[in-house]
Write a structure and sequence with these properties.
Layout (H helix, E strand, L loop, with lengths): L5 E7 L3 H12 L4 E4 L17 E4 L1 H9 L3 H7 L2 E3 L1 E6 L5 E5 L9 E5 H12 L5 E4 L4 E6 L4 E5 L4 E9 L6 H6 L3 E17 L6 E7 L2 E7 L4 E8 L1 H9 L2 H12 L6 E4 L3 E10 L3 E2 L2 E3 L5 E2 L7 H22 L6 H30 L3 H16 L1 H12 L15
Parallel strand pairs: 1-2, 1-11, 2-8, 5-13, 11-19
Antiparallel strand pairs: 3-7, 4-7, 5-6, 9-10, 10-11, 12-15, 12-16, 12-17, 13-14, 14-15, 17-20, 18-19
Helix pairs in contact: 1-4, 1-8, 3-4, 8-9
Bound molecules: flavin-adenine dinucleotide (FAD).
């Protein structure tokens, strides 16, 4: 094998989490190979919004700032949100969060996934020690005591001390390792689309809960929101088949009038929702991060934020190993990463699963309890402040990169 195909680490998957990992390690002088199946689109400007967006916590914003990629996202477009309103359509339960109550400028940002990925790729193209193989897909993975080898579809062989699987929920890397992923289908699909509406969104995320699932309006431009409508697969199929006018009528009926009349809808798509958690995140010369390790219901917008927490914790573990003169592919090094992240991830997966079940249950006693709970929480400032700190991502351990850049 030629020496130019030898790296410190090889990352499979250059989505939001894998590209962030490549930036972090490239910035610290590691020799990185990044293998991505689809060539990311860096062209800008784009008149239409991507129908896949993410609610990005403050902790994740710090990650992007620390990687010097945030400015490239802001240059494209990001939308800060200051408020969040949640209500139960089956009762009077209602809660409102406002960043002013915790003296913060915002509670987070809504950003198109393609903008996040493009911002990171723009940054990593400036890093001479990051080598991008894209579009490329791996064909074979071989791990020995000495190294990990990845054969690509064009026959190139890449070798490194460590393989990082950041290749999403259907991770090829995880499958090659035979790691078991536990979980279940939610029997729900998330329908996504960009909507324009009559009234300003007031920098607010709107989420209404109903028995068939939550419907969220996430702010983009003044009178434009991205929706995530979680509902039964049959209902999602019907909604996809409607013409635009019929779809907007159904959406208005379900959401109500807070944003005035629904005016236009962009391209619609639906994704099946699952809870999944891999029993093992690591083994000799291998680590999984992001959706390759866990998938979560999108109702609280935590998936990519958790993935960036994994990335940041893995970077910490690898840097500490390098300082101590250890092999970065060593099992003990990678176990430290796994231990640092598993508890946080399991806690969040469990909490979101509990929320989803609580709000999709139509039993009168539960319905009464959750409406009462929402209204009570709305009136108790310290509890609300705690929720908001959690939403900012500042209450959990997400590694050094998730800390403010000036600290
Ligand atoms: C409807 C919906 C709404 C969501 N909203 C939010 C939100 O508001 N906030 C939030 O934090 N999370 C949200 N999530 C979750 C979030 O989208 C995921 O957690 C996130 O995309 C995971 O990022 P990732 O980089 O780990 O994986 P992915 O985004 O799946 O990226 C994987 C990358 O690997 C590449 N790849 C895959 N296989 C291979 C291969 N064999 N070879 C080479 N490359 C490969 C892919 O092309 C892709 O670029 C939402 C999810 C859904 C479904």
């Amino acid at each position: 094998m030629s020496t130019e195909n030898s790296f410190d680490l090889i990352i499979v998957g250059g989505g939001m989490v894998g590209a962030a990992m490549a930036c972090a390690m490239g910035e610290r002088g590691f020799n990185v190979a990044l293998v991505e199946g689809r060539q990311p689109d860096l062209d800008w400007p784009k008149p239409d919004y991507d129908n896949r967006v993410s609610a990005i916590t403050r902790a994740s914003q710090y990650v992007f700032e620390n990687l010097n990629a945030w400015e490239y996202m802001v240059e494209r477009r990001v939308c800060p949100y200051r408020k969040m309103v949640v209500w139960d359509s089956t009762g009077s339960g209602h809660i409102q969060f406002d960043s002013a109550e915790i003296a913060e400028p915002d509670l987070g940002h809504i950003i198109e996934n393609s903008v996040i990925q493009a911002g990171l790729w723009q940054r990593l193209k400036q890093l001479p020690s990051v080598h991008c193989f894209s579009p490329a897909t791996p064909q074979q993975l071989q791990i020995t005591q000495q190294q990990a080898c990845l054969t690509l579809d064009d026959g190139q062989v890449l070798a490194g001390a460590l393989i990082v699987g950041a290749d999403g929920g259907r991770s090829w890397v995880r499958q090659q390792m035979g790691f078991e992923s536990k979980g279940w289908s939610y029997q729900q699909d998330a329908l996504v689309a960009t909507i324009t509406h009559e009234r300003d969104h007031q920098a607010c995320c709107w989420q209404r809960f109903a028995a068939d699932g939550p419907l969220a309006f996430l702010p983009l431009d003044e009178k434009t929101c991205s929706i995530v409508w979680s509902t039964s697969p049959e209902h999602a199929k019907q909604l996809l088949a409607l013409d635009d006018a019929e779809f907007l009528k159904a959406l208005q009926l379900s959401f109500g009038d807070d944003l005035g009349r629904m005016l236009t809808v962009g391209e619609r798509a639906a994704f099946p929702l699952r809870l999944a958690h891999t029993i093992q995140y690591s083994s000799l010369r291998l680590a999984l991060i992001g959706d390759a390790a866990h998938s979560i219901h999108p109702l609280a917008g935590q998936g990519v934020n958790l993935g960036l927490g994994d990335m940041s914790a893995l970077v910490d573990a690898l840097l500490a190993a390098k300082t101590r003169g250890e092999d970065i592919g060593d099992r003990a090094v990678l176990r430290r990463y796994e231990r640092a992240r598993k508890a946080d991830n399991i806690l969040m997966l469990g909490a979101m699963d509990g929320f989803k079940r609580l709000f999709s249950n139509d039993q009168p006693v539960l319905r009464f309890a959750r409406n009462l709970g929402l209204n009570l929480t709305d009136k108790i400032s310290p509890v609300k402040q705690l929720f908001m700190q959690q939403a900012l991502g500042s209450a959990s351990n997400r590694g050094s990169l998730a800390k403010p850049p000036h600290l």
